DNA sequence: CAACTATGTGAACGGTGTCCACATCGTGGT
DNA sequence: ACCACGATGTGGACACCGTTCACATAGTTG
């Protein structure tokens, strides 16, 4: 116990260290860059050591994805928190979309880890990005001539919004629009967001 | 020249064969399942033989993606051709979206090859799916109170639609909605499509 | 028929994920 | 205080992968 407090066994919490390095690798070279051997190498540890903390490579990648998903949520939350709390719900929903998109633009490789992700099942319900979006969409009903209130309709509306934002994010990072200049990308996001939000009204 | 006509050299057009097998592999196990050695093995050929036709593995995958993109285009075109040619443009646009989505659902792994695709640059302009979509969106302006006519606005509208359809497709195949039952997925598609199309009107 | 080029082969290199027998180290039971 | 035990890390092996190179073969062209 020489450095901070909990460096329990040999190396001190290897697992966290490997996830941290995994995120680093993913941020540099995308999902296929996060390999067990390379991660272990950068952690100054034998390749086999990884198997004390992860059943296999997929498990490491999954942990990296989880971290990335958290960062995405923070980006959304930050963007939402920057509009006035009593601003029209429309503004808040659009802000959430901007936060999503900005994360995709600024951390492209990390976002690709999420986009190519098989497993992101639980989402810890509480401050899951989707849960927050559901809440914001619920706020939309209080607005002028907006969506209905029952849970199903609210879910459907959230999916429609999520699809639009995720779609433009993917197209602008790994898709057909990835070579478009950034300012134009932001324009396209605004158009897509406006279209989706407008489409929710009758 | 014993079988059909053009089996020029040793094996007879290996390249096409490898692409065919590559598509097969991709359809079974996604993009990471299409490997040079496995493809060569199934073609009954040495691994090195592949390098006479492809500079590397990425090139093979790119060829597979090109084939998949063609199939996607056909799916869209087929869906569009099933609505009356003089049907409202809205119906045609929605049909195109359904064709896109159905391809994603029915050929999930193949679609993932496209979604995770880096390079799809040219698209042969003529019957590129996006070009066709642009055309259909152009038709929207003739409808009731629809979008404006200038090229930029038409492009923006097409991007907004594309984003929504691509987004729901990704979410339903490799994303958070992949475990939703199929009929519900189609419902969600309809909601998303309706929202996007409705959003294009003022 | 000879030379040439296109195509396919076999063996090798470095890299990977995964597993196994063994080493080491903190800790809890007596 | 000791000692056995479980948690953690090591080194070496295995099979596989993508890639390259020197070599073999087979159509084509003069």
From TrEMBL, chains A, B:
Q: Which PROSITE patterns match?
A: HTH_TETR_2
Which segments constitute the HTH tetR-type domain? 12-72
GO MF annotation, one: transcription cis-regulatory region binding
Q: Key word Lyase present in the record?
A: no
Q: Which domain of life is it from?
A: Bacteria
Positions of the DNA-binding region = 35-54
Which keywords does this Swiss-Prot/TrEMBL entry list?
Answer: DNA-binding, Transcription, Transcription regulation
Keyword Transcription listed: yes
**Which Gene3D superfamilies does UniProt cross-reference here?**
Tetracycline Repressor, domain 2
Instruction: Return any one Pfam family short name.
Output: TetR_N
Indicate what this protein is called per its UniProt record: TetR/AcrR family transcriptional regulator
């Amino acid at each position: 116990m020489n450095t901070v407090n909990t460096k329990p066994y040999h190396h001190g919490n290897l697992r966290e260290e490997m996830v941290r390095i995994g995120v680093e690798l993913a941020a540099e070279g995308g999902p296929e860059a996060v390999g067990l051997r390379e991660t272990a190498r950068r952690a100054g540890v034998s390749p086999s050591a990884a198997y004390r903390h992860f059943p296999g490579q997929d498990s490491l990648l999954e942990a990296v994805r989880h971290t990335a998903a958290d960062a995405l949520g923070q980006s959304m939350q930050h963007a939402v928190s920057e509009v006035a709390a009593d601003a029209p719900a429309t503004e808040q929903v659009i802000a959430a979309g901007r936060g999503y998109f900005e994360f995709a633009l600024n951390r492209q490789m990390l976002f690709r880890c999420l986009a190519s992700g098989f497993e992101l099942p639980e989402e810890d319900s509480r401050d899951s990005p989707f849960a927050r979006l559901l809440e914001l969409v619920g706020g939309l009903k209080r607005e002028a001539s907006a969506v209905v209130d029952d849970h199903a309709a609210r879910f459907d509306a959230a999916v429609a919004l999520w699809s639009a934002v995720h779609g433009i994010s993917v197209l602008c990072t790994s898709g057909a629009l990835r070579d478009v200049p950034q300012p134009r990308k932001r324009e396209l996001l605004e158009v897509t967001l406006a279209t989706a939000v407008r489409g929710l009204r009758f």
